[in-house]
Amino acid sequence: MLVCVKSDNFVAIFLCLIATREITEESYHILYTMSTAKTLFDKVWDAHVVRQVNDGPDVLFIDRHFIHEVTSPVAFLGLESRDVPVLFSGRTFATADHNTPTLNQHLPVADPLSANQLDALERNAAKYGISHWGLGHIKNGIVHVVGPENGITLPGMTIVCGDSHTSTHGAFGAIAFGIGTSEVEMVLATQCIMQPKPKKMRITVNGTLGKGVLPKDVILYIISQISASGATGYFVEYAGDVFENMSMEGRMTVCNMSIEMGARGGMIAPDEKTLNYLNGRDLAPKGEQWDKLVPYWQTLKTDEGATFDVDLTFDAANIEPQITYGTNPGMGTGVTHQIPMAGAVKDGAASYKKSLQYMGFAENESMIGKPVDFVFLGSCTNGRIEDFRAFASVVKGRQKADNVTAWLVPGSHIVEQQIKDEGILDILTSAGFQLRQPGCSACLAMNDDKVPAGKYAVSTSNRNFEGRQGPGARTLLASPLVAAAAAVTGVVTDPREFL
Amino acid sequence: MAYDKFTILRSTAVPMNIENVDTDQIIPARFLKATERKGFGDNLFRDWRYNNDDTPKADFVLNNPTYSGKILVGGKNFGSGSSREHAAWAIYDYGFRCVVSSFFADIFKNNCLNIGILPVTVSPEFADKIFAAIDADPNTELEVNLPEQTITLLATGESESFNINGYKKDNLINGYDDIDYLLSMKKEIEQFADTRPF
Fold first, then answer.
1. pLDDT over 50 at A138, yes or no
2. A-chain residues within 8 Å CB-CB of B25?
3. Taking CB atoms and an 8 Å cutoff, what residues of chain B touch A182?
4. B41 vs B31: CA distance, rounded Å
5. Counting C-beta atoms within 10 Å of the first and last residue's C-beta, which end of chain A has fewer, N or C?
6. The model's pTM
7. Which of A279, A314, A349 marks a domain boundary?
8. Interface pTM (ipTM) of the complex?
9. A309 has a pLDDT exceeding 90
10. Could B107 and A354 be called an inter-chain contact, meaning their C-beta atoms sit closer than 8 Å?
11. Alpha carbons B12 and B67: distance in angstroms, whole number
């Protein structure tokens, strides 16, 4: 009778059933299910709505707020000019990451503008009583790495930060998304922001991932299929056995890049793996407090019968190691493939050709064998321990190619320590690589880690926009395995040859 | 952050018919190091606007004296990428008060609304008409009427209505921002906070 309905249409369908006098016990049951079945996203969002503004957005309460040096200074100036305090300083956490150097962090920061921003963050945090993990602090690192690894991020939370990759925290079943500086000021002043509720999209990937296919490949594949704007206006839930079987680090990589298809965020239902990851972390709830939360967290999944505005399904068997060839993250393909013809893509042909021209590529060229000048392993997308393990698995017993400059940047000091403890540092050093200190680094090149104009970088980061890694730099986004294969061969290479 | 009230804007427009204009193009990351909100307009579209030696690129639309105005007309998926509000600040500081596109990235659109820029989403067909009209006559004027929620090509009278929620519309017309609203419900927020489990 009813195959697929949107919950918004509940009333319409009910009226329709009355009109057709079809209300039987069965349809009452269906209606009941429809009216109460909620998605994971609905459950978390609805629990945070302080007020619904008439013909306007929801006033959404924010459980956790991360700030960094780049997008917070003007928000603090705003507080000062309004003469308003921070409402709940214990709900905001500050870390320095975007501007920080990745060598010699014990020395004063050479760039006066960067130093000024770092000082401003420290000053503002001290003034308002906000916890601050500055340069040199043992817990310092990229905001989206240190939040989860210290147990600040928890399932069922709302989490925001003036950084679009805040979507990373969705891996834990939180609603997490990036905000602008005006909104940073709102959260500091009132712990709320005003947001229209996004539409809902579910992306299901079932099956078994092939050899050498990493979480990064899964998300790059999805974006290549639906485009860099394919999920704009939506909040995504990732479902299916590929994500269920994925590690927390992998889930973070996937949720991290939700914004790269335009989605406000992406989330994955918390499970035993999620709780095992968080339990015992420094700032996670402990003992009885933890035990009380577990039954609530277990309710955080999409109910049977709940519906999405868009439901997409992909087959894991179709995903091979990916690489991008253009200037937005949707311009990606299998590493063994050719660059598509302009006529075969959704974007306008003029924009597509402009993009290839910037990259110095042509339609129908093979990606394998393309020259590589730089390799960047790191960022909030791929700067975690699993990423370094994957990279090391390829470079072990091999040597860095002479033509490649490699920047290996852990996401945090904790990751850096793990790299040392697990013997990965020895493998990297023997293969001719140097490990740098934590930070955002060449992902957005605000510090000295800039790729020169015209040079090619295989990068495990999240954006291949023009000039993203330095003015004129050309970025090829890929997984840590593809990056490692490029680092030892000096050209774009299928990493499966080394596995 | 107070901003100018927005009601009816009548202006020529600057066309930028490129898809996926991302916030790294609007304001490259290396210009995000300020701790105050000023001067961002100088670096709007920096790498498309200037050569490495800081000389203007003659073929870029902002350097072409033929085009000017307070309205920027962009291609599909305008403002994708980073959440940096600096992108909206740069557009505002340069002198634009309205950005028109057939499709905006979410965060960029929010940022515009929060600082007093009106993002107007038009149909792809109407976007094409605007580009064609500017192409035919760079002095052609557009009228963006926020109270009526319409955008009109004044030369031909062709018009389209656009969506904006009533709350944001009132804010722009009156120059209010969200913080004013949120501060007025502080007690309600504090009570809500007491109910949170973490």
1. yes
2. 465-467
3. 1, 85, 111, 114-115, 177-179
4. 11
5. N
6. 0.94
7. A314
8. 0.96
9. yes
10. no
11. 8
Q: Which domain, by its residues, includes A26? A: 7-36
Provide mean pLDDT across the span A235-250.
98
Q: Note whether A178 contacts B76, CB cutoff 8 Å.
A: no
Q: Which residues of chain B have pLDDT under 70?
A: 1-2
**What is the domain count for chain B?**
1
Q: A397 and A298, same structural domain?
A: no
> Is B50 in CB contact (< 8 Å) with chain A?
no
| Residue type at position A117 | Q
Query: Are the beta carbons of A323 and A340 closer than 8 angstroms?
Result: no
CA distance A178 to chain B (A): 6
Question: Which residues, numbered 58 to 77 in chain B, qualify as contacts with chain A under a Cβ-Cβ cut-off of 8 Å?
Answer: 75-77
The whole-angstrom distance between residue A83's C-alpha and the CA centroid of its chain comes to 34
Q: Which residue of A has its CA nearest to B50?
A: A471
Total domains in chain A come to 3
**Are residue A341 and residue A297 in the same domain, yes or no?**
no
* B positions 92-151 inside 8 Å of A (CB): 103-107, 110-111, 114-115
pLDDT at A345: 84
- Total H helices, total E strands in chain B: 8, 8
Same-domain check for residues A480 and A332: yes
**CATH number, domain with residue A171:** 3.30.499.10
Provide the pLDDT confidence category of residue A41 given band limits of 50, 70 and 90.
very high
Residue B171 lies in a domain: yes
Single out the residue of A461, A463, A498, A467 nearest to residue A480, CA to CA: A461
**Domain-embedded: residue A147:** yes
Cβ-defined contact of A77 to B22 (cutoff 8 Å): no
Q: What is the pLDDT of residue A166?
A: 98
Shortest CA gap B4–chain A (Å): 16
pLDDT tens-digit map of A208-232: 999 999 999 999 999 999 999 999 9
